[in-house]
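> example.struct
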């Protein structure tokens, strides 16, 4: 399994750190936690068990101060919500970090 450093800054296509409208650095963790905690329009009937799994993964990522590993199920869940929540830049950065084999 790959170890992922979620506190790492998210970089644009030119290798520059991405910041939000307030100048705060965007991290891999902030994007992943945001995607895991969003309510998507096509998931209005999503059960509490799935929401709880997303919350627990968001908490695990938010609490990580060192590189951590994700299970295969966690990786699939994270990739799914990130793909729904973001455009190609963030999707590419997250996929590369959590599932490098998917980048081939």
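> example.seq
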């Amino acid at each position: 399994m790959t170890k992922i450093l979620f506190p790492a800054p998210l970089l644009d296509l030119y290798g520059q750190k991405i910041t939000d409208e307030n100048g705060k650095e965007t991290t891999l963790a902030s994007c992943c936690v945001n995607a895991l905690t969003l309510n998507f329009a096509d998931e209005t009937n999503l059960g509490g068990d799935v929401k709880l799994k997303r919350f627990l993964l968001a908490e695990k990522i938010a609490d990580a101060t060192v590189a951590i590993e994700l299970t295969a199920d966690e990786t699939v869940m994270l990739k799914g919500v990130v793909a729904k929540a973001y455009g190609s830049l963030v999707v590419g950065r997250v996929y590369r970090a959590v599932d490098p084999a998917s980048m081939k």
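> remarks
The first strand starts at residue 3 and ends at 4.
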